[in-house]
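Fold this sequence, please.
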Amino acid sequence: MRDIPDPVGVVTDKWQRPNGMTIERVRVPLGVIGVIFESRPNVAADAGALCLKSGNAVILRGGSDSYRSCHAIHYCLVEGLRKAALSEAAISLVPTRDRAAVGLMLGGLEGGIDVIVPRGGKSLVARVEAEARVPVFAHLEGVNHVYVDKLAKLAMAQSLILNAKMRRPGVCGAAETLLIDKAAVDTQLKPLLSTLLDAGCEVRGDSTVQSADARVKPATEEDWLAEYGDAIIAAKVVNGVDDAIAHIERYGSHHTDAIVTEDNSTAERFLKEVDSAIVLHNASTQFADGGEFGFGAEIGIATGRFHARGPVGVEQLTSFKYRIHGTGQTRP
């Protein structure tokens, strides 16, 4: 985090008007960020460091099962603030397990919180998005897809789908659905299924996928919407890139989706038309991570359409203002 450039005060654009005024767009902090998270106490350290680096104050509310760990981490953070002669209040921890504290944070603490970031399961994120009275950087689900095009290299497709699903099946960037081009069924379907099944991944497929391997279980409508968080994947044969994009639009969660192909024009169309925070060409969906983007740590992955979309690092934790330099200009 020390090596990440300070985003505050960076001039992102600058231009001069015909009347001689110079206008600059400059990064500024968001203000006070409320971070509500569940089991992972490391979020306290990540969020505290990210918010401090981006010039924001943060209020942390960890889960009851990580209460003591969060306090120990927060103690270390405060010690660091003290030694650096910074305000100890810059990184604050809610000192109670009482769930009423979450409601107070969602209400904005009478203007004391500018943004809420939830980190946890579906029920937590759904509650935050439903009840928050301040902006939220959040995603509900990571229903991520890998589409294997007819012009994909089989060895690459096998490697990517195995990594995207099985490296860490429980992370939000894990692939949950495999889409295979109808034109690639004869050469790629069976090997791709074998790669997953032999690695211990359960496959739930449509009729064509089932006919390719007896180990495949039938998929239901719910499977196309599922974020398994486990070694399970849904698989479907689609009629080219148009059908793949339509499937992703209908069932996806706008998180992370990938295409495997050697056809650059097809890849460019996929990258342009799939409306997800992260889209990849010939790379694993498990790269959906702030560290892999070079952001250092991340505070989460946002799937909305605010300025913070995808991994939320220090730069995404800033807004901007305009600075105007004149020489006495007045408006006629």
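The longest strand covers residues 22-29. The CA atoms of residues 143 and 227 lie 5 Å apart.
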